[in-house]
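Subgroup meeting minutes
Present: P.N., E.W., G.H.
Scribe: E.W.

1. P.N. recapped why we're keeping a running log of single-chain structure predictions: easier to compare across weeks, and new members can see raw inputs and outputs side by side.
2. G.H. added today's entry (71 aa).
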Amino acid sequence: MRKKDFENGCFSGDWTEMEANYNFTPKQRKDLATLLLELADMKKEFDVIVEKKNRLSNLWKFYNGGIATEQ
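Output recorded in log:
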């Protein structure tokens, strides 16, 4: 499409117009106390995940070492 056609409001034949239904919700801002509580919860969850990872890692090492020496 040429710039002149665009400026005159003439669009090409394959131009399609679609209606879009957007539901824009305003962003909600949280206060500092709420953010700090959420951060503390995330840290607790992270600590639990790290503990489980370490336990599984130790079990895996024990399993691999125990099976290899029992043959």
